[in-house]
Specification:
By secondary structure, the protein is of the alpha/beta class. It has eight helices and ten strands. The strands form two sheets. The chain has a six-stranded mixed sheet, with helices on both faces. It is globular, with a radius of gyration of 19 Å.
Length: 257
């Protein structure tokens, strides 16, 4: 059995004249909750799109479950949840899940199983438009879980939710992972880092730390994940400036021109 669900080597992605990634390499282990954290615009969504095979790349290798990302053989083995509730607001919870189950060819029983798994059975007959933000996000998560995928990739699933709802969703992510599904969850809320098994902390298209919550706090000498990330950013900026003393000045001149 493969230890790594995702293996990326030398990934390059370019948008316009800007390199989002310029030789990014990383692995994601099986059976864990991996948090992809960093500020907005650091490349989290582009990385997730690359993993699920919907991002155009210039070069490099992205292997998922031993296959090239986006391969037809991965369509039922990998699920992707985009930001926001990607379901029909004018349909009920049950209708949404049964519709997407039919699209996937997995049947009504699977829709009912997933509805129970994400705790939405009491709301089965309610339209999504009448649900809270956290409940609507659970419907989207349920859609992603149809067919029991081996890898679930979620792009900022807790954005805009209050702390209680965010905690409930992270507890759900943990239960899903403990049942055997590998979870990759992105966020820009640093306190969510402590809920992950493993952390990939990003800045400006680079992985500045591949670590665990305990190692992150120990390495930075902090007790707060947000402060820890600020320490890493400062450290990374200093190392970058020392290695490429003209790069930052050239970037500023390009922006000012």
């Amino acid at each position: 059995m493969m230890n790594n669900v995702v293996a990326i080597e030398g990934l390059r992605v370019r948008r316009g004249r800007h390199d989002v990634f310029d030789g990014l390499s990383l692995t994601i282990p099986r059976g864990e909750v991996t948090g992809l954290l960093g500020p907005s615009g650091c490349g989290k969504t582009t990385l997730m799109r690359s993993i699920v095979g919907v991002q155009r790349v210039r070069s490099g290798s992205v292997q998922v479950l031993g296959e090239p990302a986006g391969s037809a053989s991965l369509r039922r083995r990998v699920a992707y949840g985009t930001q926001g509730a990607a379901v029909y607001a004018d349909l009920t919870v049950r209708q949404n899940l049964r519709y997407f189950a039919a699209v996937l060819g997995v049947g009504r029983a699977e829709a009912d199983r997933v509805m129970e798994q994400v705790g939405l059975s009491p709301y089965a007959g309610q339209e999504v438009a009448a649900l809270s933000g956290g409940q609507a996000n659970r419907v989207s998560l349920g859609v992603a879980l149809l067919g029991s995928p081996e890898l679930v990739v979620l792009d900022e699933p807790t954005v805009g939710l209050d702390p209680v709802l965010r905690a409930e969703l992270w507890d759900l992510f943990r239960r899903i992972a403990e049942a055997g599904t590998t979870m990759v969850v992105s966020s820009h809320v640093m306190d969510e880092a402590l809920r992950c098994d493993r952390l990939l902390l990003m800045r400006e298209g680079r992985i500045v730390s591949d670590t665990t919550p305990a190692e992150l706090l120990a390495d930075t000498g902090t007790t707060d994940p947000e402060q820890a990330f600020l320490v890493l950013i400062a450290r990374d900026a200093a190392e970058e400036a020392a290695a490429h003393p003209h790069t930052r000045r050239e970037r500023r001149e390009e922006v000012d021109s």
